[in-house]
Specification:
alpha/beta; Nucleotidyltransferase, domain 5; 3 helices; 139 residues
Length: 139
């Protein structure tokens, strides 16, 4: 399985679509077998779900993501986990151990705000789906 963590350097980005890069981790039998840093291409509504799908991503971990973006990922069979924060290595370790604690989505998104879907003002009062770890560790 491939996991993409929305990152800004060594920390999980609070805003998926505006992260500086993605830390793409390949996991086999519960162990990390490869890690790559992939620059976030220019942000365009609806582009990232297709782009990350083509990279073989099956799960995304981010601080925040709008509901429309989550719907687009689900339509491509990609699970999203929002509300994560902290050091990338620690977040990944928690996820793989099944103990990742997530809070609310770091951004409260309003569809259509700012002239494009899913990006309103960040106020740290968003939502979290609370599903946790359903995309299957170590596949």
């Amino acid at each position: 399985m491939k996991i993409a963590l929305a990152t800004d350097g060594a920390v999980v980005s609070p805003h998926f679509g505006h992260c500086s890069e993605f830390t793409v981790v390949t996991v086999e039998n519960g162990k990390v077998t490869d890690t790559a840093i992939v620059a976030n291409p220019e942000h365009q509504p609806g582009f990232l779900p297709e782009y990350l799908s083509k990279l073989g991503i099956s799960c995304i971990i981010a601080g925040g993501m709008g509901p429309r973006a989550q719907e687009l990922f689900v339509a491509r069979g990609i699970h999203t986990i929002v509300g994560a924060s902290g050091n990338v290595t620690e977040v990944l370790r928690g996820y793989l151990a099944g103990s990742l604690e997530v809070g609310e989505s770091a951004c409260d998104h309003v569809d259509g705000a700012e002239g494009h879907e899913g990006h309103g003002s960040c106020d740290h009062g968003g939502h979290s789906d609370g599903r946790g770890h359903s995309c299957g560790h170590g596949k």
